[in-house]
Amino acid sequence: MDVVITTSAALDPTVLRLDFPILDQQVNGYPLAYLDSGATAQRPRSVLDAERTFLETVNSAVHRGAHTLAALSTEAFEDARETVARFIGAAVPEEVVWTSNATDGLNLVAYGVLNASLGRGGADARRFALQPGDEILVTEAEHHANLVPWQEVAASTGAVLRYVPVDDRGVWSLDDARPLITARTRILAFAHVSNVTGLVAPVADLVELAHAQGALVVLDACQSAPHRPLDLTALGVDFAAFSSHKMLGPSGIGVLWGREELLNALPPFRTGGSMISTVTMESSTFLPAPQRFEAGTQPVSQAIGLAEAVRYLERAGMPGVEAHEELLAERLVVGLEAIEGIRVFGPAAGIPRAGLASFDVAGVHAHDVGQYLDAQGIAVRVGHHCAQPLHRRLGVAATTRASTYLYTTDDEVDRLLAGVAEVRGYFGVDSAASSAGRD
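Structure for Cysteine desulfurase, as requested:
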């Protein structure tokens, strides 16, 4: 039984950590400091138990068969959909589509738009169709999952892909985006929270600008759904995607949310069993959403685990999670900026950001930084974080990223800061070498 706190007014990570077996271990002789939750979050016992119990007692194919286990499995599967729908402010459960991850969800939208542009989907789908001269607008800070699919759509339709530029810290603003949202803009796609800089986008303002021009808004919610209260209906976006494994849930499942009328008009791009209404040897018709996008055998036990992860987060209280991580972010940024030779990206200290920070250690490659920290039991992410254009703009091949979650403590952040302060000395990098480049 989890010992999770039941109030969002205050969050005590030392209590929550008792629910996460993996955190109670040593790595290289040190207590594990897991600061890579932005890549994959750890799972509490209740999530592990929920999936295991389902598999041991109810496991069966959903929406198929008339036997008792099939009925119970289907009921649990759809109850999970309702749980997630409530968590993200969906108007109806049918607005929640199961995908394999957020990348899959974003591709679902992109290739649905492409199919509509090719004339698929009939009259209802024409609202999505792109033609030469239309514009798709992203930002220079996007994760590849919300960039590469739109590159493919633009290349196939003749639409123009444009982007909102970032500054030397990797930050962009509403003022940067405003002049690029024009009558030619058909799709605006951006991350709610940057996985590299921690920037929190002004979603409501961007939605207002985009909708005034008749554009659709696609939100990458991977780094927001796990870390802050999220009401997608209230935000006004048209589609949003996020992954289970970043929010205490199993891997292999994600969520695409879309407004019901849009999902029912969007042509599917993955076809097969379970998503059809009628099939002849010549043609097929498709079910309404969400089933029209859920071809084949579904990730049933993973949906059960995700629903339990959502319930855990609800018990912890998302306002408390957000507040806790904002404090950790400030501690991170202030501490890192005080260390000689460290360049921190994203909003400066004192400006709210999500609970992560990416940084460059002058004269030391990010991979070496990560290995030095790992030797002290501190787990961080190194590389370009699936954001090569952003790193190219910043003039670095890779960065080190520390990302926090509800179970992260002040002590873990302080251990990271102490380790980073030692890196340049360990590798023999002096002040003169620090100006010789940041590769």
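Confidence is low (pLDDT under 50) at residues 3-9, 432-439.
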